[in-house]
Write a structure and sequence with these properties.
Chain lengths: ~650, ~475
């Protein structure tokens, strides 16, 4: 059964090749849409079949590696050489990610048929989406670091292509520069910021090769047991891997690209920049949990960065007015929670949140897409309001998503977020401080989400009726919304903790994956009894307070919002300008790099040294070339003479050496 | 000394191709003999021999009283030779028809030359090796001068013949010296006593002369002088055949004698080969820059490629051998593809062969231009095309054999080569013009080149396809 695994990867590849080669000639949106979604749907079906098959196996049998071919092969007799195969590993973790990627991916593909209707680049869009799914599946199913890196770079490329999909359009930068920038600039920003992270990933791979002489997960994780916990090399490997993760998953200090990435079409934001690609960093840390377990210092870093990102992004989300920007910061913040989970060695909880977040955040983004679609490309929530009567389905599903992310039981977000909060409090790596930051972030989350819901759907209609005629989205868009809303309601039941009479199926499912790490950390499960219930009640209370606060401020006493804005002007400015991180990077790195590149590297080094060297050597070679060719006279006698000269030299060397 | 049926059966690739050649000769000489029939017969013969080779790829056997090796190594090379012959025959037909010189005997000569190549790759005895070299060379001399009405064709044939005969003399002399010191021409026996023989200066001299003779056949500096003139003067499909099949055959002999028989690592022979490799890489690449004629450019490029592959011989290791085997497969494909497309563009009067004649080609013939670009990128050794892994493997072998300096020269000269390969791509894509293919290209030839391009990409993405094949007969 495991041998079917490569077909999961194959279908989107075929879809990409077919649409890429012939898509431009098809001129039939329906056909392109069906082909593009169908390939992902097929992958999903195979993944489901595989999953059901695995359910029937003993836990230690639920792993299969399918080697397709040796990719960078080496020769016999040189065991020390690194041998990398194109091989896929199906286990409890990768099948879970595959189900999410293909399942949510399929829904978003279907949604895109409606959303991208009439776009001249319709076929191109589905080509890129299929390529993305192919790369993402390589990332999660790879059995070695290099293939994972191929997928890692592949999704980065697709992200770049799709952010700049409408390359002839401009988008609102927001914050410090109220002007407009080309979507291309956002794409480039995403790509370049990610390069910094990727560089970390590459260095980590080099270290792994040097240390373990292999890149396959099995070999590396098998050989890792000889390492002393906390050794320098483990700390470096894990820190560099985490640097890679901060790039892909938009954490401090590399989160700045994600809000700008919203310049892309909304299905892209939902698929790549919320549900799947940005969780790749979390997946990578989870996959390498044993490495991180051997570097407790890195785990601390991960936890702190995660908690700080969670609260920082959430506070920025409080004041943004672009519907997608709010969701973008919310994504950054939620990813922070996932890393917090990783950092406190609650790997299962982190993956749990990846899954539930994929449901409700995809739902929220797609809902925002339906709003934007219905409002003719308007994204400013200050110019909306009262939309619930025009977009009833969108409203209801969006509300479900908001409740889920706010953490109200029994919606999906509650269980995963609460598990993270509890582990941040109770685990050996956690602390009260980490819990407090995360809990505060949860309150802020509930507040900004309901601010978003209220400003968009409730209250007075603030849009201009002459320009905007809000209308509900077509079936291809609303059906995915309904499915995702359903998942956002029930998705949490896969991981109901034992304290709530649940079986915590997910934890048992993933246990074999994280067992080595947990053993290394000597982690013992903490059953907190009354404390756990207290904290749970407290976090629900915080969420309810956040929602109530938002309702008070934005529905009942709207003057409060303006009053606070002028009263806490300074704070508001800082938040509005996103803590000036973009400005700081701009001054510190971007401008100085540009300047140094221009004066030192370009004029100084490139033009006067390298160009000179290159030109001089090129001229030298050309001169030599023009002389050498003269030897070729065309006379056979001459050739024979040179031949004899060669013979003399060879024999001379052999005789007298 | 008797020949058994089993011997013949084990040598099916060679025997079947010889028989095909003989039958084709009969068909050709029959009254009203149709060249089309000979053409079809020759293609079928190549395909059959290819299938036989593929079938016997598994294990190596020694037949004909220890004279000939079949299966494994020999089969791998037979596959390379028969593919090269197949492509050459396909490309020759439209080329010769345009010149009104199509004769069935052309195809028959190609078949017999291929049999000679197979003998070279399967020789377990120096005499058989000599036989193979001569069979191949005589056919090639005739093929070079096949277009009798053209002066350049005749001139190059005579030059090739003169210098080839010259080289043959040294080859025989080398064999004689080896025989004189070792007391046998059987390679297996020589390999058993190589340790004692390597101190004998007469034996070393014999080995040196063999290096020289083989270097002549692979067109390595300073025994390369014939190559540019002959490559330019010969009909283009024949040039393609010489630069792929014949070169592969000479390398087969090189590997048989200097890696599989002699243990040359660390001996002066290895040093000599390394010098020849370095000189070929430098001179080939540097001179190629100055060429304006594409056939001459590719001639110098083929000298450079001989240099890259000789790095693997100088390494003298199993890695060097697999590296060369992969390289030859990749090189045969990409060079055949490049010459094939050039043969479509060139005109009867030897015009349309310069870089400038390709200005704007991408706009007129986008698919062909894309394929030619694939071949150029691959020749330059840029991933993900087959040429990259070829270079990677031979340079890796050189590094592991402590010939780091040779690998450094290889990489640096590869950089030089990028200039002239990509110059063609640049001209096709970025210069305005209306270069195109004047005559209609037969669909079959077009498809064949398409398949070659696909294989060049496939081998670049999935190099272990060939490496695995070439590994199989190491487990002997």
């Amino acid at each position: 059964m495991f041998s079917f695994a490569p077909t999961i990867v194959l279908f989107p590849l075929l879809g990409f090749l077919f649409l890429g080669l012939f898509g431009a000639r098809l001129r039939n949106e329906k056909l392109i849409g069906i082909l593009g979604s169908g390939t992902v749907g097929l992958s999903f079906l195979v993944a489901v079949a595989l999953f059901i098959h695995m359910l029937g196996l003993e836990p230690d049998q639920r792993k299969g590696i399918v080697e397709l071919f040796s990719w960078i092969g080496t020769f016999t007799g040189t065991a020390s050489s690194v041998n990398v195969s194109v091989a896929y590993q199906v286990d409890q973790l990768s099948i879970l990610m595959t189900l999410v990627v293909t399942g949510v991916g399929f829904l978003i593909h279907v949604y895109s048929i409606g959303y991208m209707h009439g776009d001249p680049g319709f076929w191109r869009f589905f080509t890129y989406l299929n390529l993305f799914i192919f790369a993402m599946l390589n990332l999660v199913l790879a059995d070695n670091f290099l293939l994972m890196f191929l997928g890692w770079e592949g999704v980065g490329l697709c992200s770049y292509l799709l952010i700049g999909f409408w390359y002839d359009r401009k988008f609102d930068v927001g914050g410090y520069a109220p002007g407009k920038a080309w979507t291309n600039d956002a794409a480039k920003k995403a790509f370049i910021v990610n390069r910094i992270g990727d560089f970390g990933f590459l260095l980590a791979m080099f270290l792994i090769v040097v240390q373990f002489e292999s890149l396959s997960f099995d070999a590396v994780f098998g050989r890792v047991s000889v390492m002393t916990p906390g050794s320098d090399v483990m700390i470096w490997i894990t820190l560099l891997l985490f640097l890679g993760a901060t790039g892909k998953s938009a954490q401090i200090p590399l989160f700045v690209w994600l809000p700008d990435a919203m310049a892309g079409p909304t299905p892209v934001s939902a698929l790549i920049h919320a549900a799947t690609m940005v969780t790749a960093g979390v997946y990578m840390v989870a996959r390498c949990s044993i490495l991180f377990a051997l570097a407790p210092a890195t785990l601390q870093v991960v936890a702190v960065i995660g908690a700080l990102t969670a609260i920082m992004a959430a506070t920025i989300g409080l004041v943004q007015n672009d519907i997608k920007k709010v969701l973008a910061y919310s994504t950054v913040s939620q990813l922070g929670y996932m890393f917090l989970a990783m950092g406190v060695a609650a790997f299962t909880a982190g993956i749990f949140h990846v899954v539930t977040h994929a449901f409700f955040k995809a739902l929220l983004f797609l809902g925002s897409g339906a709003v934007i679609h219905g409002m003719h490309d308007e994204q400013d929530i200050q110019k909306m309001g009262g939309l619930k009567k025009y977009l009833p389905v969108t409203y209801k599903t969006f509300l479900i998503g908001a409740i889920a992310i706010a953490g109200i039981p029994p919606f999906a977000g509650f269980f995963s977020k609460d598990e993270i909060l509890w582990k941040a409090f109770s685990s050996d790596q956690g602390s009260v401080l980490l819990w407090a930051i995360a809990a505060a972030g949860a309150g802020v989350t509930a507040f900004y989400m309901f601010r978003l819901v209220i400003l968009t759907f409730e209250g007075k209609e603030r849009f201009d009726h002459h320009h905007a005629h809000p209308h509900e989205a077509p079936k291809t868009m609303t059906v995915p919304l309904i499915v995702l809303a359903f998942l956002s309601v029930v998705g949490g039941f896969i991981g109901v903790p034992e304290s709530l009479m649940g079986g915590n199926a997910l934890e048992h499912w993933l246990e074999p994956i994280f067992a080595p790490a947990m053993t290394t950390l000597r982690a013992t499960p903490h059953h907190g009894g009354i404390t756990e219930y207290l904290l749970m009640a407290l976090s629900v209370g915080i969420a309810v307070a956040g929602i109530y606060g938002a309702r008070t401020v934005y529905m009942k006493r709207q003057e409060l919002a303006d009053a606070w804005r002028s009263k806490y002007r300074r704070t508001y400015q800082v938040l509005w300008n996103k803590y000036y991180v973009d400005e700081a990077y701009d001054t510190l790195f971007v401008r100085s790099t540009v300047k140094a590149s221009e004066t030192v590297l370009w004029r100084g080094l490139d033009v006067s040294v390298i160009d000179w060297l290159v030109n001089a050597s090129a001229q030298g070679v050309a001169w030599l070339s023009s002389k050498v060719r003269l030897i070729q006279t065309g006379f056979a006698q001459r050739y024979a003479t040179i031949f004899v000269g060669g013979i003399v030299l060879v024999l001379f060397w052999l005789m007298f050496k | 000394m008797e020949i058994t049926i089993s011997d013949l059966w084990q040598s099916a690739p060679m025997v079947s191709l010889t028989l095909t050649g003989l039958v084709a000769l009969l068909v050709e000489s029959m009254k009203g003999g149709r060249t089309t029939a000979v053409y079809g017969l020759s293609l079928a013969g190549c395909a059959l021999a290819f299938v036989f080779s593929l079938w016997s790829l598994g294990s190596e056997v020694i037949v004909f009283n220890g004279m000939i090796l079949q299966g494994g190594y020999a089969s791998y090379f037979s596959m390379v030779f028969t593919s090269s012959a197949f492509f050459t025959i396909v490309l020759s037909r439209p080329y010769m028809q345009r010149l009104h010189r199509e004769q069935g005997v052309l195809y028959i000569l190609i078949l017999f030359a291929t049999v000679g190549m197979m003998l070279m790759a399967s020789a377990m005895d120096l005499i058989i090796l000599f036989l193979g070299i001569e069979l191949m060379s005589v056919c090639l001399y005739v093929l070079t001068g096949f277009v009798r009405t053209k002066v350049t064709s005749n001139e190059s044939a005579v030059k090739y013949f003169l210098l080839g005969a010259f080289a043959t003399g040294f080859l025989l002399y080398g064999i004689a010296l080896v025989y004189g010191t070792a007391g046998t021409t059987n390679l297996k026996l020589i390999s058993q006593s190589f340790a004692q023989l390597s101190g004998n200066s007469l034996f070393l001299m014999g080995a040196g002369l063999l290096v020289i003779a083989f270097s002549f056949k692979v067109a390595a500096v300073p025994f390369h002088m014939w190559a540019p003139d002959v490559y330019e003067g010969a009909p283009t499909p024949v040039t393609a055949f010489m630069s792929t099949g014949a070169k592969a055959a000479a390398f087969a002999a090189f590997v048989t004698v200097f890696i599989r028989t002699f243990a040359i690592t660390g001996t002066p022979i290895s040093e000599v080969v390394a010098f020849i490799a370095a000189a070929s890489m430098i001179l080939g690449n540097v001179t190629a820059i100055a060429q304006s004629n594409l056939k001459r450019m590719l001639a110098y490029s083929s000298i450079a490629h001989a240099g890259y592959m000789l790095s693997g011989i100088a390494a003298g290791s199993a890695e060097g051998e697999t590296g060369i085997l992969f390289y030859l497969a990749a090189y045969t494909l990409m060079n055949m593809g490049a010459f094939g497309i050039i043969s479509w563009v060139e005109q009867q009067d030897d015009t349309k062969l310069t870089f400038d004649d390709y200005a704007g080609f991408s706009a007129q013939r986008p698919v062909v231009a894309a394929m030619l670009s694939v071949f150029m990128f691959s020749l330059a050794g840029i991933p993900p095309f087959a040429g990259f892994f070829g270079k990677y493997y031979v340079f890796l072998a050189a590094v592991k054999a402590d010939l780091v300096w040779l690998a450094v020269i290889g990489v640096l000269t590869s950089v030089i080569s990028v200039y002239y390969y990509l110059r063609l791509v640049m001209v096709m894509y970025f210069r305005d013009g209306n270069a195109t293919i004047e005559e209609r290209v037969p669909g079959f030839a077009f498809a064949v080149i398409g398949v070659i391009a696909a294989l060049v990409i496939l081998l670049g993405l999935y190099p272990s396809l060939v490496v695995d094949i070439s590994k199989t007969f190491f487990k002997l």
